[in-house]
Amino acid sequence: MDTSTINSKNIAYPPGGILMWIIIFLELFTFGAALIAMVLYSTDEPEIFQQSKLLLNTTFGAINTIFLLTSGFFMAKSVENFKEDNRTKASFFLKLTMVGGVLFLLLKSVEYYFKLQAGLTIGYNTFISFYWLLTLFHVIHVVVGLVILLFNYVSFKKKSTIKLEDFEASAAFWHMCDLIWLLLFPVIYLVF
């Protein structure tokens, strides 16, 4: 096979396909724009933002960061084993990836419970409104990511055929969830 064909295919067809990368860039743009808006609003209400940030549980946020980064590592290991045609190991690492996602959602649910108990609802103030909108939108992405990963896991169990492009697309979506959290955590929990 001609190497120029291989190289041009890699550029034209990134892991997961071009459509997945368009979605990823649009999502990153959306979250980035919302974070910029949050920072701009903070200049109008600096005291409210500083005081409201103290109402967040930074420890929960840091632990959730560890959950997502660890699950992202396991997702990369799953793809690596999938490419080596080791479905057993790929399935094992995929399961660990999903466990990390579920742990993230469980801890986020506990955090949300405490916020609601304290009366920190979406209309409390501008900072808390941004907190709810951004983190809930991210939670929706994590849930969608887990559903996608679950379909892959079920396919492994049924010994169904999964295309590499589809599996890489699932991984790219999951890594997008990691990346978005890496943008949200420092801005929401640490900056103000």
Overview of the structural elements:
By secondary structure, the chain is mainly α. 84% of the residues lie in helices and 0% in strands. It has 7 helices and no strands. It has helices at 3-12, 18-44, 46-53, 58-83, 87-117, 126-157, 164-191. It starts with a helix and ends with a helix. The model is unreliable at 1-8 (pLDDT under 50).
What keywords describe this structure?
192 residues, mainly alpha, single chain
In terms of topology, how is this protein built?
Elements (H helix, E strand, L loop, with lengths): L2 H10 L5 H27 L1 H8 L4 H26 L3 H31 L8 H32 L6 H28 L1
Q: How would you briefly describe this protein structure?
A:
The chain has seven helices and no strands.
Largest sheet data: none
Indicate the radius of gyration in whole angstroms: 19 Å
Residue runs with pLDDT of under 50 for 5 or more positions: 1-8
Q: Give the distance, in angstroms, between the N- and C-terminal Cα atoms.
A: 55 Å
* General form: elongated
